[in-house]
Amino acid sequence: MDLSRVVWRKCRRSGNGGANCVEVAPIGDVIAVRDSKNPDGSRLAFDHAAWAAFARRVRSGEYDL
């Protein structure tokens, strides 16, 4: 997957000036995800249904430590 031209975005609620966050980019049928601290590192890709399910769980507090 060519990610050279995608527009990455961070959550509006990112702490630490956005330095400790993930960035996402919609690319066709997938959502690409990367670590803002290491933008050239590994990236993950999720289909829209999987990303929506993950986001719902985050918002519900299911993953809070």
Automatic annotation (TrEMBL):
Which Pfam families does this chain map to? DUF397 (PF04149)
Which stretches make up the DUF397 domain? 7-59
**Superkingdom field:** Bacteria
Enumerate the InterPro entries for this protein. Answer: DUF397 (IPR007278)
Identify this protein by name.
DUF397 domain-containing protein
What organism does the UniProt record list as the source?
Answer: Actinomadura alba
Q: The organism's lineage?
A: Bacteria, Bacillati, Actinomycetota, Actinomycetes, Streptosporangiales
